[in-house]
Structure formats: structure tokens, C-alpha cells
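PQQ-dependent sugar dehydrogenase
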Amino acid sequence: MRRALLASLALLATPALAQEAPVTSERATFRVTTFARGLEHPWGAAFLPDGSLLVTERRGRLRRVTPDGRVSAPLAGVPQVEAAAQGGLLDIALAPDFARTREVFLCQAAAVAGGALTRLITARLSPGNDGLTAVRRVLDATPAQSSGRLHFGCRIVFDRDGFLYLSTGERNERNRAQRLDDLAGKVIRLTRDGRVPPDNPFVGRSGARPEIWSYGQRNPQGLAVNPWTGSLWEAEFGPRGGDEINVIRRGANYGWPVVSFGREYWGPRISRETAGPGIVDPIHVWTPSVSPSGIAFYDGEAFPGWRRSLFVAALSEPGLVRLTTDGDRVTGEERLLWGRDRIRQVVVGPDGRIYLLTDASDGAVLRLDPA
């Protein structure tokens, strides 16, 4: 009863939506609408069939935003997270058959014996959309690391065949990305129930973890399936420069830290090489950095001129990057809302509009509307 009362008060307290003056870009004119306010470092989001939006807050809370922008009280049943530095409650994704099973997947930083790690969990969303039940751990990206709370990665996406992909950061320990007996600095591929698909590239290989799909990633916080080719695209942070967009291939090595376009934060190049034998090159690089986080392909009705674009949330410089694509190639770049808000994630809504999560202690969900 008390939880329901608090939820009702939270909904009533939400202010009306606020629209801004039109913005003209290369292929669209749009307005920025503040869709929801009062979120503490929102990180991941997923739309429910009723049009409401589940949003994670890095501190460890999960909230529901109604279609008219009202923010609920925190949902019950969310497991404890390691909310320190870059860690916390991070991404969320609905199971492909959510309408029938009400299953959701969440990624978090978790404290365990020996330190902290990236953890994938599954749960059921209650019929009233006010809590999680049947919470179960699916995978821990072992080994745990005692030092630092950085580079957890933590994006989740399902492909056309229903396989689940999870990105993990190398926890700011570079050589972990190249180790095949270690789940840090990887893209991991699993079945819905957490089993290893028999066609994963390292199944049966001695000294290698069978969950690994690709390796050599630094801190990948963007994953999306290209709807026109079916390929998996990934965005990852470089250090000082060297941010990358990659097309993820089975068993491929993406090079970190053997090759890199980036520099140490104090100046020198990390690697004298930007390419090498047996290493897959990125299809797009930023130097200086934009700090790419979440990504989403666009094929909606609201902005016909933006179709076949990949939108990239940028943290520094803050803003939104729009990449034009042709198949599995990047053909151009446009920067939107530059210098305005640190954007953690970009989501395309069922209405064809684009929703942005701003990374701030008083964070918001912004919506791009046609103008």
C-alpha cells in the first residue's frame, strides 16, 4: 500500500513536457522535448509494449516512465549493485518474447569475493510493472578484479536469431582484453537461458572461455544489430582519442591494446601501430574523442531523412552523433546538440521518435520530435 502511494505521488509530481525551439539539421528539422526529469544518472532504457519506458539509474534503481512522461517510484526487487565510480545498474533489454514471458535482462557491476565484475541477470517484470521477481544470475564476467571500478562495458542486445550479446570492459587492465581465459574486454554470446551456443568460436579450445564471441575490446558501451544486414555493430571508448565503431565478427580480435589510435592521458601514443596482422580494423574512428556510449540504428517514420542512420550517444564532447551508413560502411557524420548534454544512451521509440538519456545527477529523458 505504501509503495503504491509513493508511486502515485511520484507520477503526480512530474511536470508537463517542455518543448524547445526548432533545430535544423542536414536531413531533418526537429524540436527537443524534455520527456522526463529527475533521474539520477540514467544509463539504459527499454520500451514496454504499452509505450512506457523502463529506465535504469546507475545508483541501483529501476524506474518506469509513462507515455506522458511521468516517472514512477523505484521498482521493487532490483538486486544490490556496486554503485562506485563507473559501476552500478547499467543496461536493460527485454527478451524477444517479453509480451508472453515478461522476462527482462539487466547488466550491472557486482561486488563479489575478490573484487568487482560485470554481471548479467534475468528477471520477470511484475504484471503491475512495479517490481522484479524471479531474479537470477546468468553470467559473471570472471575473474573479479580488486582494483578500481572502471570499464564495465555492459550493453545487451539480441540478434535476429534470438542470441544474446553482452559487452564487457577490460576493467582498465589492458591485457585482459587479449586473454582468452578471461571474460573482460569481450563481446559475449549466449542463448536466452545463458547456455553457450555450440557454434561459438572458442568452444572446445583449451584455455579459452567458450562464451567469447570477439575480443580485444577496451570499454564497449554501444551494441546494436544493423537491421539491413543483420550484423552486430559496437561502439567503444578509446583512451585519449581512438574511439571506435566496429562491425563484430565471429572470433575476431579488435586489437586493444596491441593497436590503437589513442594516446595515454599524459601524452604518448599507446601503440605505434594502428593496424596489425590478424586484427580487424574499426570502420570509424574519432580522434579526438567523443566518448561514444549507447548506439541505435534508425528506420522510423518520424524522420524519413534520417533513415539508415546510426545514432551515437556522446559524453565528451557532449552531444549526439549521426552516422550515415551504406550496408556495413559508415559514409558520413553529423553532430547534433553539440556541447549541450552528456548523452549516455539513445533509443528509438515505437512512435519513431528518438529518446536520449542525459548523464547527470539530475538527468532527463529528452525526445526529438519532428518540427
